[in-house]
Amino acid sequence: MFDIYSGPVFGMARQQFLQAADILEIPQDQRDRLLYPKRAIAVTCPIHRDDGSTVVYEGYRVQHHLSLGPAKGGVRFSPHVDIGEVAALSLWMSWKCALMNLPYGGAKGGVRVDPYSLSLKELEALSRRFMQELIPFVGPHVDVMAPDIGTNEQVMAWFMDTYSNDAGQTVTEIVTGKPVSCGGTVGRREATGRGVTHTIVRAAEEINLNLAQSTAVIQGFGNVGSVAANELHALGVKILAISDHTAAYHDPKGLNIPEIIAYVAKHGVLKGYSKECLTDPNTILTIKCDVLVPAAVERVITEEIANKIECRIIAEAANGPTTLEADAVFAKRPEIFIIPDILCNSGGVTVSYFEWVQDLQQFFWEEEEIISRMKKIMDKGFYDTVKSAKELKVSNRMAATCAGLKRVHLAKQARGLFP
């Protein structure tokens, strides 16, 4: 059934769903409606390259459900994007928004392209064309997009401008993660990384770990990983190793995070920062530390790696970084406290919600208020998850997934079906 949603990422999300559905005792005849997306859109995006040639890129947008409000989720530009991956990410977004009690359904989008192969002019052309093709299917009360891997504030500004030109008026609330200068909110860029660090603080309290005397390893040094590194460094955590798609560095004495962040701000990537600290990126997840932060892509923690990991806390800053086989290993390793992705990285969508609300009412808050509100919402999600895990005797991941799935299920039941 629904063979278009194939591939290992959707297969993983589907198995997580089935496990949670069994725990919640959801009837079999109601499961497909909860699992499969409401709508999946595939578009072609032709653009003129700088050399005058025409190239066509594939784009997707999957809206998992709209039962709690408009669909919400990021757009990634990556050469590995496919509709199965995007559908899985939309499913995780549904659970995440419901877990955080936000009035959204989950969505996700993507274009199969290497954004680093495009000039700025070509990137703008692709961004605008993608939004133009999606205009019939999105809107401030239908589907609100945000940045993800390979996209940023500038891409969101182009999305917003393209939609606004079609509407004949400025519609800032069509996307979140925009520059502050055109309707974005202060604190949005840092929100996901800050949220990751906040959940690490709460997890450390749970297991009596003194963060000021702790060490951390961060895989992925994009927007999320770099902000989390900076926040942890400020708390006194020694960052032993970091990596991105270009390089990996390891120093047992601790890396100079402010210096590295300044280098990446200038050069865009980690490559070239140091020769002395270079290490094998394939071993970064198994470096002994107190806090491990996978902040890159899906399915990086495999069964083999799970058996080799030496840490106290795994903070899943990326979406779906842990395979089902690895989860089975962690079930036998209670000494590792896992902060599941739909909880750990929910700071981004929480502050995106704040941005959307501010745009709708055209009244903006101070950054201090935004951070405070984000932490309050994330605290409730964290403590509810930990409490539920203990009561149900399940993993933190299953507890968080069950909480999100239950809310979506109840909403769909209450709204019913057209006769």
Automatic annotation (TrEMBL):
Q: Please list the residue ranges annotated as the Glutamate/phenylalanine/leucine/valine/L-tryptophan dehydrogenase C-terminal domain.
A: 185-416
Has UniProt tagged this entry with the keyword 4Fe-4S?
Answer: no
Electron transport keyword on record = no
Q: Where is this site: Important for catalysis?
A: 148
> Can you tell me which residues bind substrate?
72, 96, 352
Kindly list the residue ranges recorded as spanning the membrane.
none
Picking any one GO molecular function of the record gives: nucleotide binding
Q: Which InterPro entries match?
A: Aminoacid_DH-like_N_sf, Glu/Leu/Phe/Val/Trp_DH, Glu/Leu/Phe/Val/Trp_DH_C, Glu/Leu/Phe/Val/Trp_DH_dimer, Glu/Leu/Phe/Val_DH_AS, Glu_DH, NAD(P)-bd_dom_sf, NAD_bind_Glu_DH
Residue numbers binding NAD(+): 192, 223
Q: Which domain of life is it from?
A: Bacteria
Supply the SUPFAM superfamilies for this chain.
Aminoacid dehydrogenase-like, N-terminal domain (SSF53223), NAD(P)-binding Rossmann-fold domains (SSF51735)
Q: Which GO terms describe its biological process?
A: L-glutamate catabolic process
Q: List the catalytic residues.
A: 108 (proton donor)
- Which family is annotated? Belongs to the Glu/Leu/Phe/Val dehydrogenases family.
Q: What is this protein called?
A: Glutamate dehydrogenase
Question: What organism is recorded for this protein?
Answer: Commensalibacter papalotli
